[in-house]
């Protein structure tokens, strides 16, 4: 094999099966799938019924993974080039830690549980790759990306190509099927159950982006791919399109199929057939709430998303585009709570100026710079609840929100930075702060120190200071604002807030 190329493998443990990809990636970020393998496993049936992986499913999964390990040995793939992930079923399993440990001990795979927001990120990468430049309206019009799995539904909303919101909902085909089976003797029907759940979800989505204004509907799940194989038209090698009316007619036609009929008529296996009807009906109901003329169906998934992530590595252009989507998602969260957008953007810009000028002092990396920007964008979001104590209200809102591309651990850091952008620094009784790992507590202090200074520079929300230069002396950071402004409010703000900066970095802050 060319020395500039390497082989990698991705093993995904899902709700309905375990799947394997073997691919070759090159130094330019290109990749090619060389082999695929799949084995149905009813993991989701266990977990969504009892909350645990049963012994039988445990042993079945181990055997499949051991078989895949032997297959990878034939490709000479091991160690850091063999990546194993698990999605919604193991996310909620009470014995997930035991499962992960045993997989590691018996198979050598270090299994990573992909949280919902990370699954969204990988799906976004896959969709972005699949569409290429063949669907320009995706970047110009409002769009929705939806993937329905066995245990969860991942949804992303984009306004003219910019991320508005991302959600991971506990609504999957296995869960829907179980609920319908449990209510068979009650007045509840499948359609009524779906209508109520999708109506409630749509109310949430409409508060973020009016679904009636969505023009591009991307269906990224395996059920949609089955339909695309039946009635879709090829857009490119990785993507099909299904006309809206054709999809709705197809959904109406198959909605009363038995599992056996689905297997026979759709040419799918029994495990996939058990959940395909609920999945297609969910796509249909969401589609009917939009004005999209067609469904766009990528033929790649979370597995390919991870593969793209591995192939791209530290591709700076892709990284910066991804960070911009995270900031766009944070901005839309702020708009949802009617924040002062001009003030928050001003404070965020000041944070970035301080961050870049003081890199040697704080030592934070590019991703942490993005996290600081998110905290600055949202620092006063708690004003929506009440001005008094808004830093605590803001902490609550951020910690209970979903922001595209941010892990839970990162959201906890950002929520604490919002908490300490005013008032007293952390103390040992602050549970939200003390419960963080030590390295994240240091991050909170560094980011909060910078944010407090940046916020003080727009103390009156009047944007008196448009820009400033930074001069460092032995024990002082001097901020030169230029011009002839009344800086009384800003000086008062620094007097209130610059103490943490001095404690963390050892510099007094002076404004001129």
| Secondary structure category | alpha/beta
Tally the beta strands.
15
Calculate Rg over CA atoms: 25 Å
In percent terms, what proportion of residues is strand? 15-25%
Mean pLDDT: 91
What is the terminal separation in angstroms?
A: 62 Å
What is the percent of helical residues? 40-55%
> What global shape is seen?
globular
Poorly predicted runs: none
Give an account of the 3D structure.
This protein is an alpha/beta fold. It is 52% helix and 18% strand. It contains 23 helices and 15 strands. A seven-stranded mixed sheet has the order 8-7-6-9-12-11-10, with helices on both faces. Strands 3-2-1-4-5 form a five-stranded mixed sheet, sandwiched between helices. A three-stranded mixed sheet has the order 13-14-15. Helix 5 packs across helix 13, helix 7 packs across helix 12 and helix 14 packs parallel to helix 17. The longest helix is centred in the first third of the chain and has 21 residues.
List keywords for this structure.
23 helices, 512 residues, alpha/beta
């Amino acid at each position: 094999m060319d020395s500039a190329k390497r082989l990698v493998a991705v093993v995904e443990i899902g709700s309905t099966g375990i799947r394997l990809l073997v691919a070759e990636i090159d130094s330019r970020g290109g990749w090619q799938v060389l082999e695929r393998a799949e084995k149905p496993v009813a993991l989701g049936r266990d977990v969504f019924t009892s909350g645990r992986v049963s012994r039988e499913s445990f042993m079945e999964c181990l055997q499949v993974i051991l078989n895949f390990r032997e297959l990878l040995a034939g490709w000479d793939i091991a160690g850091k080039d063999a990546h194993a992930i698990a999605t919604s079923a193991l996310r909620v399993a009470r014995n997930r830690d035991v499962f992960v440990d045993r997989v590691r001990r018996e198979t050598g795979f270090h299994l990573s549980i992909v949280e919902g927001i990370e699954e969204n990120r990988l799906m976004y990468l896959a969709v972005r790759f699949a569409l290429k430049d063949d669907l320009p309206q995706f970047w110009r019009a409002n769009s929705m990306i939806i993937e329905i799995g066995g245990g969860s539904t991942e949804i992303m909303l984009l306004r003219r190509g910019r991320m508005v919101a991302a959600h991971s909902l506990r609504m999957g085909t296995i869960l829907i099927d179980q609920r319908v089976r449990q209510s068979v003797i009650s007045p509840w029907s499948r359609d009524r159950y779906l209508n109520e759940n999708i109506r409630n979800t749509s109310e949430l989505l409409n508060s973020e982006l009016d679904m009636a204004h969505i023009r591009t509907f991307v269906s990224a799940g395996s059920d949609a791919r089955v339909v695309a194989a039946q009635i879709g038209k090829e857009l490119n090698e990785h993507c099909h399109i299904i006309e809206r009316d054709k999809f709705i007619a197809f959904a109406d036609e198959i909605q009363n199929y038995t599992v056996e009929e689905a297997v026979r008529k759709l040419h799918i296996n029994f495990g996939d057939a058990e959940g395909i009807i609920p999945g297609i009906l969910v796509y249909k109901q969401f589609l009917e709430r939009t004005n999209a003329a067609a469904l766009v169906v990528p033929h790649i998934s979370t597995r390919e998303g991870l593969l793209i992530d591995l192939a791209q590595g530290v591709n700076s252009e892709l990284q910066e585009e991804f960070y911009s989507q995270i900031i766009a998602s944070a901005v839309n969260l702020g708009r949802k709570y009617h924040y002062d957008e001009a003030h928050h953007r001003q404070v965020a810009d000041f944070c970035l100026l301080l961050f870049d000028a003081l890199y040697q002092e704080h030592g934070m990396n590019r991703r942490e710079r993005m996290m600081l920007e998110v905290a600055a964008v949202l620092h006063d979001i708690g004003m929506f609840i009440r001005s008094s104590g808004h830093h605590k209200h803001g902490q609550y809102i951020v910690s209970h929100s979903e922001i595209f591309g941010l892990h839970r651990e990162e959201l906890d850091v950002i929520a604490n930075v919002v908490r300490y952008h005013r008032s007293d620094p952390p103390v040992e009784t602050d549970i939200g702060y003390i419960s963080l790992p030590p390295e994240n507590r240091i991050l909170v202090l560094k980011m909060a120190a910078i944010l407090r200074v940046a916020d003080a520079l727009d103390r009156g929300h009047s944007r008196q200071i448009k820009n400033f230069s930074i001069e460092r002396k032995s024990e002082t950071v001097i901020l030169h604002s230029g011009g002839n402004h009344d800086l009384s409010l800003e000086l008062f703000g620094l007097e209130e807030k610059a103490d943490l900066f001095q404690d963390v970095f050892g510099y007094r802050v002076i404004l001129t």
